[in-house]
Amino acid sequence: MTSSIRLPEETIIQLIPMHICVHTDGRIRSVGPTLQKLRPGTKLVGRLLTDIFEIRRPRTFDSLEQLLSEDGQKLSLYFKDEPRTQLKGVALPIEDPKGSLIALSFGISVVEAVEDFNLTIGDFSATDLAVEMLYLVEAKSAVMDELRRLNLRLQGAKLAAEEQAFTDSLTGLKNRRAMNVVLSQLIEARSPFSILHLDLDFFKAVNDTFGHAAGDHVLQHVAKVLLEETRKDDVIVRCGGDEFVMILNGLTQPERLRDLSHRIIDRLNKPAIYEGNECRISGSIGVATSTSYAQPDSDVMLRDADNALYQSKSDGRARATFAVAG
């Protein structure tokens, strides 16, 4: 036995914001505000239900009037135009005017629908289980957002720690650990490169005469000179007290390396001023290029550059010497 209901339209809207009222001829008499929100700018009232929706279930029926007149008839509907959102519905007969009330819901696709149509809790009935789901989704989103922010902070802290582990605290240059990593990467990639090993001359005299603060100032001055004279992608390392290594990727031409070494030496020959005192140093350089070796090895190249450096010191300091590959 079929039953019918009598409810003011305002009550229906409040209780079922996603509904359709259909005349017996199949034309839409009214729609709930949430359903209309799914098709903004599209006039739904007055159109045939079957012009708007494809009825998937039940799969067969004699007529739309007969289908909708059955009390509690369960429906599965799809919009005919894009996006083809699936809706589930229950049809109930109404008397004034005679027709059917179809209460609709999104079913398990409610989360996607909320995102697709910018729906809020206010678009659902207060008793709709979708509201509970939305609360859960919002809570999950808040937790995920916080986890993403925490992950970003952790990644930032990790990068900062790694950068600190590879950085000389006094000069801001790379340290020996970073040097070893860079050299390993270049050799593994078979990239041509050169090593310039610089040792400061007369640095101990600066420390002994003007104190360690003056020595620190000189080291920072040297770091500034090296950064200014090399390229952005070159790696400058403070590998000892007053020793520096420049790793020059792709630069192996002797004349260019000699010009670079002479520019650095000339600038270091000019005294660094600390508290009105002239801190005089110079620099001796040893050069080793990967192209001089059949199979480059970082330890061998560093050793040869170091030997060439001390040859520069033996020859009178403030000069550059190219290593002879052993």
TrEMBL record:
Segments crossing the lipid bilayer: none
Superkingdom of origin organism: Bacteria
EC number in record: 4.6.1.2
Residues covered by the GGDEF domain: 191-325
Keywords: cGMP biosynthesis, Nucleotide-binding
Gene3D superfamilies: 3.30.70.270, Haem NO binding associated domain
Molecular function, one GO term: guanylate cyclase activity
One family name in Pfam for this protein: GGDEF
InterPro entries: DGC-Regulatory_Protein, GGDEF_dom, HNOB_dom_associated, HNOB_dom_associated_sf, Nucleotide_cyclase, Rev_trsase/Diguanyl_cyclase
Name used for this protein in its record: guanylate cyclase
